[in-house]
Amino acid sequence: MRLETYRLAILIAVTITAVLLLPKTFLRVADPINGPMKAVDKPPLPELPAEVDLDVYGVPHITADNETELAYTLGYVHAYMRMFQMDVMRRIAMGTLSELVGRAGLDSDEFFRRIGLHLAVEETWRTIRERYPDVAAYLEAYARGVNDYIASNPPILEYLVLGKRPEPWRPQDSIAIGKLMAWGLSGGFTDLQLARFLAVHGAEALRELELLERPLNVPIVKAPSGKLLSWLGSVDGAVRQAVGPAMSNSWAIGGSLTATGKPVLANDPHLTLSAPPIWFLARLTVPGKLDVYGATLSGVPLVVIGRNARIAWGFTNTGIDVVDFYYYKWDGDRYLYRGRWLEPSVREETIRVCTDTCEEVSLRVLETVHGPVIERGGDRYAVRWLGMGTTLEAVAFYYINRAGSLEEFVDAMRHFVVPSQNVVYADVEGKVAYFASGYFPLRDGGYLPFNGSAGEGEWNGLAWLPEATMLVDPPYVATANNKVADLGRYLQWRWADRYRYVRIVEMIEGAAKEGPITLDRVMAMQNDVVDVSCRYFVPMFLEAYRRAGRPEDVGERMDVLRRWMEEGCRFDDDSREATLYATSLLNVHLSLWGARFRKANITDWAFLPLEVTERLISRALEGDQIAVKWTGDPVRLLVDAVRNATDVRWGMLNRYQMQHPLGAVLPQLNYPTMPAPGNWFTVNVAPGQLTRVGLYVTVGPSVRIIADMSSGRLYVSLPGGQDGDPLSGGYASMLDLWASGRYEALG
Amino acid sequence: MRLWARYGLALAITLALAQIPVYGIVVGPLIGGLAYGFAPLNKTERNVGLTMPMAAYGLILAYYALVDIERLARYLSLFPIFVALGLAVMLVMGLFGLFIGINAYGVLRTRGRQQAR
């Protein structure tokens, strides 16, 4: 063979080898025609059955002739702007995330399949179809809208990167997203963490640290309506038959205190800050029948927080305990229950894991009489959560959106099972109300795992919480995830420190003393960055300094803290004093609990609230020997904490990190990091998570809403943009508005 | 064949074949380069051939700019690495095609001469 032929053969061989060696993902992202660049060629929103007006921030004002067209159009618009986000949410809930993102989603899928959220979704949908045909038709019309968008084969950036396409939408998927939210707000494993903490540090810790009482906290409802005895009879029949780190602020101020003479309602749910945001703002109108506006969840055609022409409502999480864990004596796969060995039922699950090709992973789930079995720390527990089985929150929101009075609103809330929420309500007639929503499983205890073999912790019915917690027409009402009420029985052991609540109440009462409360004042309250915890801790730092003999090396720092407290304890992003205080607090917290949490294998560094620390140190300074057993020398603890603190500008340390679901591999999709004013305990909350390089704020006001019942206006801001398409000009359209504490007016 | 006609044909082949899912970005410039190179070329013509894959990428960018220049600008600012990868793959594959074409032409010409003798 001649030289030229050899050269040709070698060239062809090299070419073929190069092509075969290039990974498909590499070729896909590089491809300007079939790859992510194709997303540049996104067609505009087409003509839809209902009229869609997008305002300057991309908020759709949808006006339809009927509810079917309304739901269809909202489905199309949601999908047009947030298809990837809604797909990810439904897939997490249904345990099919691995089909989209490969092995990265497998742990999540295994967990949710094991818990059986998908089964609860299907059961809920069957109930809605049978008993609430209007709601079912509405969800089906919405799904048609989403599917028509999918059928148009849109070029969506994230799918083009992954080499996937969205699967058709089903009405169940909307329910799944609601279930996922419910699990996020009321599920979790803190009971197991508490059990580990007590196992390692002694059962007496529960009493010594006053974990169940938390005497410093302030309940929302000071004088419960005393209907405990009627609880068992109060369960809504339909629901009882069917029912198988989140923080927030809300308040409603009655007309007697406002400048307009009508109520003002404010709400800012503290959820994960993501790109795009969890919420999607919309106004939905069917003239003469419906006019509702506020925050929807992408994938759900209902306004979750907002208002209509007559009423407004807002939610914060109560933290009421509706999840239990049961341990058993096991013999292989058999378990002992009330003296009998029982075979658990077995559920086989198959999870598809897809990258360029798909593989199937099998999962064998055991279920006891209490629920599905999970493994934690080498132990097996059955999980029982109120959200397993049919729950009708979708029905509740369908009717809430259409309610015109407190009676209709409360009636709608009878369908709302889980997660229990602090509900604030206001209407154009001037009425203001509060209640804790949802149902509560009646049982003895609930904060620690039950001995399932001994028959402990059986649920003896459900109580409807509003009956015991309803407040109507107080001058104002405020909630900040603090204790709901002292009802004389166990409701919860996890609730937020009182600091935000104390500050909200102080601001409302202070403003009322100065005159009628204006909307500007309410907006300022929502963006307030004063941390009142300093009023309790700084005096303790100063007292410790005095008792330590005023050591010179911390004298200046103590002066700085004292002056800063006297000036109001503000956590502005340029404050160095705020950093000094915050890092002193962190030093106290980590010195007290860091090693103890690690020993108990607790990774959540904020597992115990600051109030517990505050109370413990206060007792130790007073000479309480039980407290000293925990704190060691409190004087040294406090002085060392200040000595080892830092004082860089707060905004350099505490920074927002808002991630896209693919942000770990494509950080360009995340919103830019920026200074986060406020801290864990300010009304404008910015709870930094400890990392090696600073405090990452990944949770915060996920939407801010203020409803003015005198004007029909709803003032809103979103931590990001309406449009979830990273190539859209609206991807972060409201981020500056939100970060600077300003609002857009809807309505 | 005239240079512009050969160049145009190579671009058209590249863009048409680049539509193939996943392997389009490889096959398009490869065949386009091959088509361009499979003909007698002087040195200047060879150098012109080197620009063919970049011209193809440029045409694609021009199309997107025409469709929505703002979205294209955001894409370029978000994913310059994807663009660089795309250009690199097309360039390498185009060159492979070109060299294979030139060599194949050389081999066939030699065989033709041998048969003629």
Structure description:
The complex is a heterodimer of chains A (747) and B (117). Chain A is built from 25 helices and 31 strands. Chain A is of the alpha+beta class and 747 residues long. In chain A, the strands form seven sheets. Chain A has a nine-stranded mixed β-sheet with strand order 1-2-5-6-7-8-17-18-22. In chain A, strands 3, 4, 23, 28, 29, 30 and 31 form a seven-stranded antiparallel β-sheet that branches. A four-stranded mixed β-sheet of chain A has the order 15-16-9-20, covered by helices on one side. In chain A, β13 and β14 form a beta hairpin. The longest helix of chain A is centred in the N-terminal third of the chain and has 28 residues, at 67-94. Chain B is mainly α. In chain B, α1 (3-17) runs antiparallel to α2, α1 (3-17) crosses α4 and α4 packs antiparallel against α5 (80-116). The longest helix of chain B is centred in the last third of the chain and has 37 residues, at 80-116. Chain B starts with a helix and ends with a helix. Chains A and B meet through α1 and α2 of A and α2, α4 and α5 of B.
